[in-house]
């Protein structure tokens, strides 16, 4: 027995330990790149993805010691989601000024989020049936353990009732986003109604909301700065565990088709929507939202990507804060075409063909309708596609064995699913902003800066600040991305500019110290 075998018998894996040490060394290198060389956030995340792939391939099958890194990061992201959504919606609605604006933004947001999901469902049906996914896979239903998934089955009636709050504290603790949003909207609308008659009495509430917003966003800033480090661990674990399993050729085809559908849904269907309904150049639009797509692809958490999403929408696309801070958070729970549209449809078609289940046109129509209904109550966290897919399969009477069959590729597909979800929310935000005249083309058409975070461009009403488009002393200096926008306003801008900045209703502005959006 060799030394390595003796050590393994003691429960110590030398290769796993080496993988962890390699990751720690990479962390130190990333820290130097960010602090000393001032490498931008986007480039750092891209580099982290590439390094993560290398670590996963090099230490394939021995990455369990790395797994806690990504797990901890996702847990922290999830923990900040509830406070982030609550203060974002409260801040957005209390600053709307009228119920008419709320009705306009709210109804349009829900409509376009569901439209993006409906289109993705049709696209997934077309490609799934075209490639006859699962046919010839020779997969038998017997032998698969579905017991662990039984508890995740959610009846359609429960999906509907769970949309409404019952115990708000419990809803927040359990991560029930829709009830949380509805309750928050109720409080915010109540404020608007009372403020219309007794503004001086409820003004302290609005001041409290703004104070909480600044504090929560600062916390988000710290968390987002950790993203490149987490990406190394997340990607390494995904590559190092999933590629060691022998994938059936049919599963490989399904994975390939799913990414083709993700791409077509984002850039073709999304491009048409952006061109026709938002009246924006699709190429420029998608170039500007790449940072949010990369973070979504890496973290596999739509809700966790929210700070980056809203910041890009406001400072790159030109979406006003009222729309960005309402539609984007809503897009983490309603719609979600990747997790609640494309993946459940492809999984169902794969299982139907692989298991030889008889399915007709009417059955597929019902399947599509159920997917759209389930998309009303999804959650923008890793793994939500498993729950939504289980719910859809159970609702239409398909065996849960279908879900188990696709588990080997689910984690890999989750990268594309999340990027699709985030892209759809940003597209819907741009369309809504255009329809309610809250889209600032001066920001959208502004030349993209390199090497520095963008200066704030919107004031408290969401209107374009002219001084943000004019170079000033602060903008001409070499400013490291580690300095926050607030600090830059204090150090280099006039007191008037700083006052305007502090009153802005922008979800992503305070987390800009970790994110150089326009660096690609």
Task: Give a short synopsis of this structure.
This protein is mainly alpha-helical and 520 residues long. It has 25 helices and no strands. Helices cover 70% and strands 0% of the residues.
Provide a descriptive summary of the structure in words.
The chain contains 25 helices and no strands. The model is unreliable at 6-10, 140-153 and 450-520 (pLDDT under 50). It starts with a helix and ends in an 18-residue tail after the last helix. The longest helix has 49 residues, at 177-225. By secondary structure, the protein is an all-alpha fold. The chain has helices spanning 3-9, 14-35, 41-58, 67-94, 99-130, 147-150, 156-161, 168-174, 177-225, 227-242, 249-277, 282-288, 290-299, 306-317, 321-330, 337-354, 361-374, 384-395, 401-405, 407-435, 441-444, 466-469, 473-476, 485-492, 495-502. The radius of gyration is 23 Å and the shape is globular.
């Amino acid at each position: 027995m060799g030394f390595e075998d003796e050590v393994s018998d003691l429960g110590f894996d030398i290769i796993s330990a080496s993988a962890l040490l390699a990751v720690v060394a990479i962390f130190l290198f990333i820290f130097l790149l960010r602090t000393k060389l001032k490498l931008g956030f986007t480039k750092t995340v891209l580099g982290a993805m590439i390094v993560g792939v290398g670590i996963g391939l090099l230490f394939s099958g021995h990455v369990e010691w790395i797994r806690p890194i990504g797990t901890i990061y996702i847990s922290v992201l999830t923990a900040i989601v509830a406070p982030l959504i609550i203060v974002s919606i409260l801040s957005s609605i209390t600053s709307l000024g009228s119920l008419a604006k709320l009705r306009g933004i709210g109804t349009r947001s829900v409509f376009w989020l569901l439209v993006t999901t409906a289109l993705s469902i049709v696209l997934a049906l077309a490609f799934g049936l075209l490639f006859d996914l699962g046919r010839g896979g020779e997969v038998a239903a017997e032998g698969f353990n579905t017991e662990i998934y039984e508890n995740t089955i959610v009846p359609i009636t429960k999906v509907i009732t769970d949309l409404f709050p019952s115990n708000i504290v419990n809803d927040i603790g359990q991560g029930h986003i829709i009830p949380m949003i509805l309750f928050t909207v109720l409080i915010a609308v109540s404020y608007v109604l009372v403020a219309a008659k007794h503004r001086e009495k409820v003004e302290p509430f609005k001041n409290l909301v703004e104070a909480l917003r600044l504090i929560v966003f600062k916390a988000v800033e710290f968390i987002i700065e950790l993203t490149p480090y987490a990406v190394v661990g997340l990607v390494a674990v995904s590559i190092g565990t999933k590629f060691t399993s022998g994938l059936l050729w049919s599963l490989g085809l399904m994975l390939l088709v799913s990414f083709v559908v993700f791409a077509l849904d984002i850039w073709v269907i999304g491009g048409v929507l952006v061109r026709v309904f938002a009246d924006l150049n699709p190429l420029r639009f998608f170039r500007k939202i790449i940072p949010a797509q990369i973070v979504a692809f890496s973290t596999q958490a739509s809700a966790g990507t929210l700070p980056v999403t809203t910041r890009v929408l406001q400072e790159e696309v030109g979406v006003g804060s009222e729309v960005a801070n309402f539609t984007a958070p809503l897009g983490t729970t309603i719609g979600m075409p990747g997790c609640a549209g494309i993946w459940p449809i492809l999984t169902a078609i794969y299982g139907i063909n692989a298991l030889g289940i008889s399915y007709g046109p009417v059955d597929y129509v019902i399947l599509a309708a159920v997917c759209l209904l389930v998309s009303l109550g999804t959650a923008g966290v890793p793994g939500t596609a498993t729950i939504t897919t289980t719910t859809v399969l159970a609702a239409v009477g398909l065996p849960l064995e279908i879900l188990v069959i696709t588990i080997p590729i689910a984690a890999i597909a989750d990268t594309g699913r999340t990027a699709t979800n985030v892209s759809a929310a940003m597209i819907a935000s741009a369309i809504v902003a255009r329809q309610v005249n809250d889209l600032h083309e001066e920001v959208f058409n502004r030349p993209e800066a390199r090497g520095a975070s963008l200066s704030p461009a919107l004031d408290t009403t969401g209107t374009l600040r002219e001084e943000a488009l004019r170079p000033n002393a602060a903008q001409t200096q070499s400013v490291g991305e580690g300095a926050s926008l607030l600090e830059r306003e204090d150090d280099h801008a006039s007191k008037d500019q700083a006052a305007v900045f502090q009153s802005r209703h922008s979800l992503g502005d305070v987390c800009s110290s970790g994110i150089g959006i326009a660096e690609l």
